Amino acid sequence: MYGYAGKILHLDMSSRKSAVILTEHYRSWGGGHGMGSALFWDFCKDKTITDGRSPANVVCIMTSPLCGTIVPSAGGRCEVVGVGVGLHPVSWFTRSNFGGRFSTTLKYAGWDGIVVTGKADHPLWIDIRNDEVSFRDARSLWGKDTWTTQQEIWREVGAEQGTKKAWREIRKHFDEGQTADKPAVLAIGPAGESLSCHGCLIHDAGNGAGQGGFGAVWGAKNLKAISVTGTGLFSVADPAALLQARFATKEKYATHTENPDLRAWSFLAKPFRPVLFSAPPTKNRRPQACQGCITGCRARYGVGYGNESSCQETSWYLSHVRRVFKTPAEITEVNLKAADIVQKYGFNSYPVMAGLHWLEHLHEEGILGDGRAIPSSLPWEELGTLDFAEKFIHALATRTDIGADLADGWLQAALKWGREEDLRTGAMHFPYWGSPEHGYDPRAELEWGYGTIVGDRDLNSHCFNQIFWDVNIHFAFGMPMRLDAREMVETVAAKLSPYIKDRPEALDFGNANMYSEAVAQLVRWQLHYCRFWKQSALFCDLRWPNLYNSNTPDFSGATASADAGEQVFWNAVTGDRLSFEQGIELGRRIWNLDNAIWVLQGRHRDMVRFAPYIYENRFTKGEILPFYFWPCRDKDGTWRYADVMGRAIDFDKFEEWKTIFYRLEGWDTKTGWPLRNTLEKMELDHVADALEAVGKLGGKPHE
Amino acid sequence: MDEARESPTGEITRRRFLMGAGGFALVAAVGGAFILPGKMLVMADAEGFLLVDLKKCQGCGSCKMACALAHWGVASYTLSRVQIQQDSFQNWPNDVFMAVCRQCKDAPCVQVCPVSANRPDPKNGNVRIIDTHRCIGCRQCIEACPYTPKRLQWDPMSRKAQKCDLCRDTPYLGEKGGPGGTQACVKVCPVGAFKFSREMPDQKVEDSYQVNLRGPAWAKLGMSVE
User: Are residues B55 and A286, on separate chains, in Cβ contact within 8 Å?
Assistant: First the structure.
């Protein structure tokens, strides 16, 4: 099997035994999420669990055939699946994803993925050196932060700190493997150890599997870290084709090193600049990238802080810092040091971004604080300082102060504190599944919100969100648009095979089109595309799909192209003859398996609803910008970028939209449960049988 | 290193044979190298060198993966002839080190090879290569490399050494390699942290292969060109 290591590692924490699963049994799922879902289906004996901290939970850390290769911005991603922690009303079977060099090293060690079952009786870390797997005592590591943990494991494995180091034998003899690299370690910190829903998995300084609460899942299993050293190799079907496609991507689609377009449109085309929400702290820096990435999105600096942090973790505290500090240098320093704090605690800062505004509101209203209805002795008057950030994250990571209530989920805490009204007024910006708004409000950016509520967690897929950034940043700074609205939607729609190819109306997020079949097809395209190409083949969310690209003469992106499309890379590595559309069809199969798991967990269409404020309040204040331009059609059919703020989602119309969506998916429109016919067409007969056995197959009489 | 000793297999090595047969003067031409009395091997200078910018590398490892792919058709770190070492917890510029073969003048790895498998290739700019058919896997060349980490690699499957040949022997590259052609690492690097040069860097200076490849475009992106 070209592109695969050939084996999946099963770690049973209860018995401290490892076993080999042959990858070929799961080959039809591609890799990553698809394989992970299929493994979860087979290994999780109780799929009704709704809290990932259950010992019955199974967590899979999966690579893809593309990991460990030069497929641009795909070689270093890694997918994590399992039942999550902290969502509401149910913590669904969910996913997260991180980059770096863990998946690459795992492949070179001879493993396509890791399945973790059971629960150890005391903390352990796993030492993988090629085929050799050891369960090692982690009691001395418990309580240590993620950075310290990794460096102590490096030492334990025999890797010196720093660079310019000698080759290292991974066992006793050079014929058993030598490496010039550090072990790749994935670890939890105090947040995961305390089983807080904020617990995430951290690798190196700043690669994190944030969403899903997988740090708490590991903590519940007493799994502190997995260290991998890999010195092997795997075969690639057509190495020359792979190299040439990579060269073509660099020359045609990615940024030009010597002549970068600073105003480039599309994420793949953008120049080497870290994705930061404050200014970089110094020009003494390098771009820093995951393995195989063609354009790094992070940086390492000469100042001693902020290394490898980007995007979310550099924005969770920023608005508060800006109110305390005035100079750009001070703001950057405190903001990036706050990012370091969450990295070290193994803390998913994503809920805090919206959540901290809510807590501040409660404090200002006299509800939260010392001696108040919601007691908290945190120094709220110092919000915005580094000291507050440290104390606040410490509390939430260690279940102290308000962290005791927030550890099980933000909505859970709101309900405990009697703050249901905040979900009605919108004071609490948690629109779906107890998960915070991402900056892309569902009332404006439809594919993000709709895709989230029919799924399992905040979508965090930037397929179409690139349009928001390119258009709105150019508008904000008064720069001319690179593509007008009609050019944009036609260029993008040309890529949207098989559901909406050349149907630009799918991208019309205007009021008249927001509940349409075309938008339902757009949401389906994104979900199915992502399930395979992004989450199973593991193309990076921040580089793919490349639907438009200002580096090409006609603005046509790399996606599905004959020279550098996703399928070109997949086939070069695996030897398959997979078409782009067949990849999306495989994504549909994976998506259906996930939905079947959600149904077993208790999913019903009546649960698929936004928080009340999304229906009852109009969207008037953006998290990022005071406007939200998106392609829309006028009544006469003319395309223009229009501001889609100022509206709510109509409850009844959205229910009708759900019916359209379920029908297109081949799911029962009354329940959202899949139909047997739909599953059998995808060779998921056994899944249909399992659902039927518990009375949850669509199309059957149901309560 | 004792050139006259027998190879690990106990066979009389090619070099020992040559020394024994020639003995007193120029005795043999061994692929662009000549053995002088006193057991000194004289070799023509290489005509191609890889230069690197440690402050520019983004640590993506694409060069490593492309190298193993172009030479062997496989995905591997350890079979890469260029090694990028990273420590995520160090600060720029000490967080990355790019270890490339220097194609040394009077290369120690060539000097010690007991069977002349490691030799300059006169047809390809005297780039120092290892003839895998001739290599006996004694590892003397690896040990002789004076740099850390060693710039030659051990292939545990074939039990032979390998080294950078500037992509002379790259059946999977899809285009002509070598000093007059493409080097996979140079071509794949997204940031341009490699440069192929015809000019031999100062052999007495350890960091002479480390150059500044950050031009005006780098400054335009807000990064140091110092």
Answer: yes
